[in-house]
């Protein structure tokens, strides 16, 4: 399926997913009704087809900012891949003396030629990780 915890309809949901369902049902702030299957495709498809940033005003911006702030404070040697202008705005929440920040255009066909295709972020990540492993040995 390619989705964590998800299984095709007709396949028994794994125990971890059942516990997630239980937790959602027990949370009185939510109106969650447990589905009769373990297919989480609907959870992954939360934006409108062919409408970039249709999720923009649904709270994800604030959520990701808070996650980045926590990671910045609680962790070290994280590699942040900030692709596209909205993601690059998050760089201000990252201590560059403590973490690595790689910035480039978004991989979208509309902007990939403005830096993403040449950025070599995957090999740069590998180099950074190899240096961290060598340094920590």
UniProtKB/TrEMBL annotation:
Keyword Nucleotide-binding: no
Example of a GO cellular component annotation carried by this entry: mitochondrion
Superkingdom as given in the UniProt entry: Eukaryota
GO BP of this protein: base-excision repair, AP site formation via deaminated base removal
Gene Ontology terms, MF aspect: uracil DNA N-glycosylase activity
Domain Uracil-DNA glycosylase-like: 13-130
Pfam families in the cross-refs: UDG
Keywords, sorted A to Z: DNA damage, DNA repair, Hydrolase
Entries under InterPro entries matching the protein: UDG_fam1, Uracil-DNA_glycosylase-like, Uracil-DNA_glycosylase-like_sf
Sequence similarity: Belongs to the uracil-DNA glycosylase (UDG) superfamily. UNG family.
Name the record gives this protein: Uracil-DNA glycosylase, putative
Native source organism of the sequence: Ichthyophthirius multifiliis
